[in-house]
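SEQUENCE-TO-STRUCTURE ENTRY
===========================
Question of interest: how does this chain fold, as expressed in backbone structure tokens?
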Amino acid sequence: MYFADWGKEPVIERAALDGQFRTAIMRNVGRANGLTIDFADQRLFWTDLDANLIESADLTGTSKRNIPPPLAIMVRTKWETFCQGSEVEVGDGARGTLNSCALHPTGR
């Protein structure tokens, strides 16, 4: 299981379901919230309430990415969707002025 600890030094950890074998995989994560696993890409996603970002890393805590705060997010088998009202972030930094969401390949 993966979980966030907002204690003195906020951290994202993983452990066995009985709580044994706790391992910190990400440190300095602010108030990490809403942890979600994309099993197809083996990535962990979370929101950082302090930095107002969505962040992700692989399941060992490496390859960290910051995603600008969208209005909505949806991960599908081969596509990610980011919506920001009238401005759309298409994952690779490209921006448009659409009033809808944009889909882009996740790299698989």
Remarks:
- The chain has a mean pLDDT of 75.
